[in-house]
Write a structure and sequence with these properties.
The chain is mainly beta and 266 residues long. It is built from two helices and 19 strands. Strands 1, 3, 4, 5, 6, 7 and 8 form a seven-stranded mixed sheet that branches.
Length: 266
């Protein structure tokens, strides 16, 4: 049965392929490899720890938990809300959703440097957008030591076109916004991070393609000469060609603070 993986599984991926991708590339970008994001000038959502009010289905627990949830075909937004542990760090969160045709695996984490700014009303909160090919009673697994609640809903939409700027801490899916066909510049920066990856997804859940393969706008990890992760900063500018005008969103996987500025090329 064909499985399509639309989201990132950073730790597993990097452990299995890190030597291939990063050997001899300490602190360098590969070729193409929460707080709610804010968008300017058209949109400034207020960060909140409240569940989304969009008819989302929810799943709560602590530690490692499994369940089956009814999810429809199409694009979804997962929101993981984590209670701030007393006197300890939240640790790595892992969420996986599987069906006969799709497999989604996402990890969320925060470096010590950004943890204080990532807390909203006593909670950490991160989001990620994904697509399912068909309606399914999907097995869902969550791993996070602290008490948590997982919500499923639909991404926000804003009435805006480029230029748009989004900022955040940790994993986040931005709202959908309209991008007409044309050439653009995507400036990606990050601080106090060990890893960052940025993907562009259209309204139907299709990821931006580079030829015949799905390609991130940025995929970067900071490692020293001993291949150990270290906390640092990141900056790059990526040219982007949009062949078909549509509503798009950014999926950012990051354990630090980040900014994505998307602008038309004059």
């Amino acid at each position: 049965m064909e499985i399509r993986v639309f989201t990132l599984y950073l730790t597993l991926f990097l452990f299995l392929t890190g030597c291939t991708f990063f050997a001899g590339c300490v602190g360098e970008e590969t070729d193409q490899l929460d707080q709610l994001p804010t968008a300017t000038p058209t949109h400034t959502p207020t960060p909140t720890a409240e569940p989304p009010e969009d008819g989302a289905v929810s799943f709560s627990g602590a530690g490692d938990q499994k369940t089956t949830m009814p999810l429809s075909a199409g694009v979804h937004l997962l929101t993981l809300e984590i209670e701030k542990p007393d006197g300890s760090e939240p640790g790595v969160s892992k969420v996986s959703i599987s069906t006969e045709k799709d497999a989604i695996m996402v990890e969320g984490n925060y470096t010590a440097e950004v943890q204080p700014d990532a807390v909203i009303d006593g909670h950490y909160r991160w989001t990620h957008a994904f697509m399912l090919s068909e309606d399914a009673d999907a097995p869902v697994e969550v791993s996070q030591p602290a008490p948590w609640t997982l919500h499923f809903g639909f991404p926000e939409m804003i009435n805006g076109i480029p230029p748009q700027t989004f900022t955040g801490i940790g994993n986040a899916a931005t709202p959908f916004f309209m991008i007409p066909a044309g050439n653009y510049s995507c400036q990606i920066t990050g601080e106090n991070l060990t890893v960052i990856s940025v993907w562009l997804m259209d309204y139907y859940g299709t990821m931006l393609m580079d030829g015949d393969r799905v390609a991130p706008l940025a995929f970067h990890q900071l490692r020293n000469d001993d291949f150990e992760l270290y906390v640092g900063d990141y900056s790059t500018t990526v040219p982007v060609t949009i062949k078909e005008g549509d509503n798009y969103l950014f999926n950012i996987v990051c354990d630090g603070s980040w900014s994505v500025m998307f602008s038309p090329v004059e």
